[in-house]
Amino acid sequence: MTRYHRFATPLGPMIAIADAGSLTALHFEGGRHAQPIEPQWIHDPHAAPLAACEVQVLEYLDGRRDAFDLPLAPRGTPFRERVWSEIARIPRGEVITYAELARRAGAPGSARAAGAATGRNPLCIIVPCHRVVGTDGSLTGYAGGLERKSHLLALESRLLAHAA
Fold first, then answer.
1. 51-79 confidence digits (pLDDT tens)
2. Model-level pTM greater than 0.70?
3. Positions marked active-site
4. Domains of the chain, start order
5. Are 133 and 96 in contact (CB under 8 A)?
């Protein structure tokens, strides 16, 4: 049974979705490619891992967490899942280009396809697609909006500077 939970963050409301005890989606409410809530889903803010997701995301946004410990089960094509796996490997405070992401995912020369897969990332923040930028370093394509992408990168930059 699919369960979901809406919660407030400093960057706007988010929706976490879980199925069979694993997080399948986390997105900003109203974001591009956000998964719509289905009528048969159960709103259950206390269900595992939804409650833990809220706590961990808020800790991350508050600068008190730099890694997530949640059971994840994103669903996508094999190519998308390879891209998401590579995104998850990008260290906090670092960025890579879509071209580099495509290369790492085993599809050199497929920056546009990697960008499309990035845009369909179902686990924003947790799979940090905000760390992928255009070839010239510009902030492009973030389903949650470029203002949020900029905020997340600035947050990580401040945390790294503070830790040094």
1. 999 999 999 999 999 889 999 999 999 99
2. yes
3. 129
4. 2-61 (3.30.160), 78-163 (1.10.10.10)
5. yes
